[in-house]
Write a structure and sequence with these properties.
The protein has a single domain, classed as Rossmann fold. The radius of gyration is 16 Å and the shape is globular. It has a five-stranded parallel β-sheet with strand order 2-1-3-4-5, with helices on both faces. By secondary structure, it is α/β, with parallel strands linked by helices. Flavin mononucleotide (FMN) binds next to helix 1. The site of flavin mononucleotide has 19 residues, from helix 1.
Length: about 190
């Protein structure tokens, strides 16, 4: 089984990547082949609403997203990981998500299949500094609609509060265990 993970944190080795790496370790231990795409290393422009995608579901902007589209549609399992920035996902993650409007168009306007693979599942990992009750309300909606647009069911999530400084999440060992378990569940077809 192939797991594609997408890191939306600009901070390499930061809290989000630490948690994501644990999830990938769990997935690998369950036999999956895992890939990690680091958005900060890519050139991905925001959606410019050209709407060329209404012709064939293909985005007109020629940047690194063109190589990421096939990875997204061919993955059997997907993990998106982003820190909370102003109650949203990072700008890196949001640009990637918005560019998938071309896949939304493919699915809902052109009524074409988004992916050749059935029963695709995804998980969302997010880390925030504070303890706010509604911290993840917005991003949960964003991710559910994103996963739906790309034909992935939103099957799991790990939403972590109280980690701010680089690496601070390591002070919550239960979180790292939960991430490992999430990776295992995603590959072993457990979860929602
Ligand atoms: C631009 C920016 C906006 C942030 N906004 C929030 C916020 O709205 N709520 C919150 O709890 N933490 C916020 N944070 C803190 C990060 O979510 C926190 O430091 C997180 O651990 C960063 O993860 P990383 O190490 O993977 O980058 C913000 C940080 C930055 C840089």
């Amino acid at each position: 089984m192939k797991v594609l993970s997408i890191l939306g944190s600009p901070r390499r080795g930061g809290n989000t990547e630490i948690v994501l790496d644990e999830a990938l370790r769990g997935a690998r231990d369950s036999g999956a082949e895992c890939e990690k795409v680091v958005l900060r290393d890519l050139n991905i422009k925001p959606c410019m609403e050209i709407y060329k995608c209404t012709e064939a579901g293909v985005c007109a902007i020629k940047d690194d997203m063109q190589a990421l589209f096939p990875k997204i549609v061919q993955s059997e399992r997907l993990i998106i990981a982003s820190p909370i920035f102003f109650y949203s996902v990072s700008a890196l993650a949001k640009a990637m998500i918005d560019r998938c409007q071309s896949l939304w168009v493919k699915k809902y306007i052109l009524e074409l299949p988004v992916s050749p693979i059935a029963d695709r599942r995804g998980a969302f990992i997010s880390v925030a500094a504070t303890q706010g009750k509604k911290l993840f309300d917005g991003v949960r909606l964003t991710m559910k609609y994103f996963f739906d647009a790309i034909d992935v069911s939103y099957s799991d999530e790990l939403l972590i509060r109280g980690a701010d400084e680089k690496g601070e999440v390591r002070k919550q060992p239960e979180v790292l265990e939960a991430a490992y378990d999430l990776g295992r569940r995603l590959v072993q077809n457990q979860g929602g």
